Amino acid sequence: MALKQLSVFLENSAGRLGEVTRTLAQAGVNIRAISIADTADFGILRLIVDRQDEALAALTAGGFTTRTTDVAAVEIDDTPGSLARVMEFFQEAGINIEYLYASLENKVNKAVIIFKMDDHEKGLRIIRDHGLVTVDSF
Length: 138
Description:
The structure is a single chain. The protein is an alpha+beta fold. It is built from 4 helices and 7 strands. It has helices spanning 16-26, 52-61, 82-93, 120-129, and strands spanning 3-11, 31-38, 42-49, 65-77, 97-102, 110-117, 133-134. Strands 1, 2, 3, 4, 5, 6 and 7 form a 7-stranded antiparallel β-sheet that branches.
């Protein structure tokens, strides 16, 4: 199942990340996974939150440029080689992973990896076919 990720486009300047987190906190939104990629001029903050609609409304009202994207959150064992095994499934199927990051989800002996795939539907089929567990909400 698809999970919705929020991407927030930010100027690469002091305090902008704090403004986003403060805006979400004031809206009562909990961040469940977070990643930031930056260049010299701007950054892309990627978030999985517990209340998507409220987060999007608060960020838009705060003047932030946002976008939603389908991603897959896959639960894997928290052991050496677990991620490598999943990556082999994608490689064998010809699925390109555009980026990934881990979530703040806390389950004993489990990790949750967020995948952005070039072919989302095919990627979800591979996940299901290999009996992997997806997380569809946090």
